[in-house]
Amino acid sequence: MNGFSLAIEALTTTPALLAAAGGVLWGILGGALPGISPSIAMALLLPFTFGMDPIPALVLLASTYVGAEYGGSIPAILIRTPGTNAAAATAIDGYEMHRQGRGGEALGISLVTGTIGGLVGLIFLVAFTEALAKVALVFTPPAYFSLGILGLSVIASLSGGSLIKALIAAVIGLMIATVGTDPVSGVTRFTFGYPELLDGVPFILVMVGVFAVSELFVQAGLPEWDKTSARNTRMKLPSWAMMKRTGVAQVIGNIFGIFEGCMPGAGGSIAAFMAYNEAKRWSKRPEEFGKGSPEAIAAPEAANNTVTATALVPTLSFGIPGSNSTAILLGGFLIHGLQPGPLLFSRHPDVVYGLFGGLFAANIAMLLIGMVILTPAIWLVNRPKPYLLAVIYALIFSGIYSIDHSLFDLGIVLAAGVLGYVMRIFGFPFLPLVLALVLGYLIESNYRRSLLLTGGDHIVFLQDPVSLGLLIAAALFVVGSVAREVASARKAARRGQVDPSRS
Amino acid sequence: MPRDAVVGAVVLALAGVYWLAARTIRHSSLDDSIGAAGLPNTLAVLLAALALLLILRSLFSRARSNQGAQNETDVEAPRAHLRALGMLFLGVAYLVVVPSLGYAVSVALLVAAVALYNHQKPSLRLALVTILISVGFYLLFVRLLRIPLPPGIWPDFLPA
C-alpha cells in the first residue's frame, strides 16, 4: 500500500480527523495565551495521549503545534504580546495594523499565509523524509550509537550562548536517564528502594515538569498580562490583490521555514525574523515595514508555520528533535513504543503516513477553525490569570495521575518543575536536557551491545561506514559550534574593552 | 563572587554526590566490560570537569557580557522566587491531602488556593468558579475518562 493510501486510511478509519481538529483548537487557544508556548500546550496534552492509539495521539500533538503557531499571532496582533516566541516578529507590524483599525486584516493574512506555509512545509516533509528513510536498512548497533552521539552533538548548537551550560544540562539529562534498571546486566541504579523507579524516570514526567510546571512557577511571579479591548475584531481574509502583494513575502517565509526547520536548534523564531528581514529587503515598499505592512506579517507567519512541518524532518528521519515542540512529539512516539529514526518508515509506515495525513487535515482545520475561533480566543486571553494558572495546575496533576495512577509521579513532576525553574534562573537551556534524557538509553544500550559483539573493541565504531560517517558529522557539528562560541566570546571581550561600563 | 562561579560550585557538589551514589551500584555476574556503574562514573567525572570549566570561565572572564542570559527570564527578583516557592508548596500540599480528602475536594482546594495565591480576591464568584472547575474536572476524569482518581476517606462514611 502506498503512502497516500495509508494516509487516507488513517484519516477515514481512525479518529485522526477529530484529533487534528481538536489539536488545532487546543493549540490556537494555548498559543493565544501569553506564556503558554507550543511546547507547553503539547506537554499538557501528552498525558492524555497515553491511552490513545498511536496515530490519533501523534496527530493530536502535531496539530497542537500547528495551531499554537497561529494562535501565538492573535495576542501578538491585538495586544502586542506574542503568544509564542515565533510570533514576536508578527507583533511588530501586526499591532501597528491593529492600531490603524486593520487588526482583522492582519489576522486574516496571518491565518492564510500560515496555512499555505504549513502545507508547503508538509510537501517538503513528505518528499525529504521518504528519501532519508531509505538508509534504514544499513543501520547496525554501532551506527545507532553514533546516531545518538550525532543527536547529542546538536546540543552544541542549542547552547543559547553558553556551550558549557548546555553541556551541563545534557549531562544532567543523561544522569536522569541512568536511573532504573541497567540495560545489560539488569542491576538497579539510583532507585533508592523505590519500585516506581525500576523502569527509570519517565521522560513524560520530566518534560511536563520542566516545561509546564516551571512556567507556572515563573508566571506566579509575573504581573497580569495585558488585556485586549478588541472584543469585536472580525477576521478579514486577504483578497486576491493582497495575496499577490504578499506573494514574495510568502515564498521567502516558506524558504526560510524549510531551511531553518531542518536545522536542529534553529526553529520558528529564527526563521520568522530572518524571513521578516529578507521580505523587507525584497519588498517594493520597504518603508512600510514597522508601520503596519501586510508583507511583514506574511513572511514571518509563513516561515513559522512552515517550520511546524519541516522541523519533523530530523525528528522522524533520525530521531533527533531540533526544538522543544518536536522533543515533546518525540516523547509522544516513545510513549507508544515507537522509536523515530531510520527504521520508523519500514516498520510503521501506517503511523508515519497517518501523521502526514493528519498534518494535512490540521492545516485545513486551522484555516476553518481560525476563521471562527477569534472571539473565543479573545475571551480566553481576557480571563483572569489566577484562574488560568489554577486550571493548568489542576490539569497537570489530573493528567499525570491518569497515566499510571501514581502520586509518586506527581512528586517527580514537581521535582522536574523545580529543576526547570532553577535552570531558567541560571540560564541553562532545556532542550539539551530533554535531548540527552531521550537519547541516553539509545546511546548506552547500543554502545554496550556493540562492545559485547566485538569483545570490547572500540574500533567497531570506526569500521562501520555509517557509524563512521555519523561520528564525523557529529565532530564537525561540535567543532563548528565551539568555533562559533569562541568567536562570540572574543567579540564580547572586545566589546567589553571598548565599553567598560558593560562589565 | 560571580554568579556562574557559585552555580559551578553547586554543580560540582552535585557531581560529587552523584559519584558517591554511583559507587553503591552493585556488581553483577552478568556485567559486561563497562559495567552498570561505567556510564554513571563517566558522567560524574564529566559533570565535575564542566563545573570546573564554568567556575574558571566565570572567574577569569574579563568580558562580562550577557552570554547565557538568553534563557534568564525576568524571574530574577527574590520576591519572584518566593512566589514560585509558594506555588511549589501548593503542589506539595495537594499531594499530601489528596489521599485523604480525595480528588474532587483536593482539586477544588487546589484551584481556590492557586487563584487566591495569584491575587484573585475572595468572592462569591471565586467560589462559584472553583466549584464549576472542580466539577468539570471530576466529570471529565472520573466519569468520562474513567480514571480511578483517589476517592479519599469519603466512601467510608457512605452506607455499604
Notes on the structure:
The complex is a heterodimer of chains A (503) and B (160). Chain A has helices at 3-13, 16-32, 38-49, 54-71, 73-79, 88-99, 103-133, 141-153, 163-177, 203-220, 240-245, 247-262, 267-282, 295-310, 312-318, 324-335, 344-347, 349-372, 374-381, 385-404, 407-425, 430-454, 460-463, 465-498; strands spanning 180-181, 188-189. In chain A, strands 1-2 form a two-stranded antiparallel ribbon. Chain A is built from 24 helices and 2 strands. In chain A, helix 2 runs antiparallel to helix 3, helix 3 packs parallel to helix 16 (324-335) and helix 13 runs antiparallel to helix 14 (295-310). Mean pLDDT of chain A is 85; it is low at 499-503. Chain A has one domain. Chain A is mainly alpha-helical and 503 residues long. The longest helix of chain A is centred in the C-terminal third of the chain and has 34 residues, at 465-498. In chain A, strand 1 (180-181) and strand 2 (188-189) form a beta hairpin. Chain B has 2 domains: 3-60; 78-157, no CATH class. Chain B is mainly α. Chain B has helices spanning 3-22, 38-60, 78-117, 124-144, 154-157. Chain B starts with a helix and ends with a helix. In chain B, 68% of the residues lie in helices and 0% in strands. Residues 67-75 of chain B have low confidence and may be disordered. Chain B has 5 helices and no strands. Chains A and B meet through helix 9, strand 2, helix 10, helix 20 and helix 21 of A and helix 1, helix 2, helix 3 and helix 4 of B.
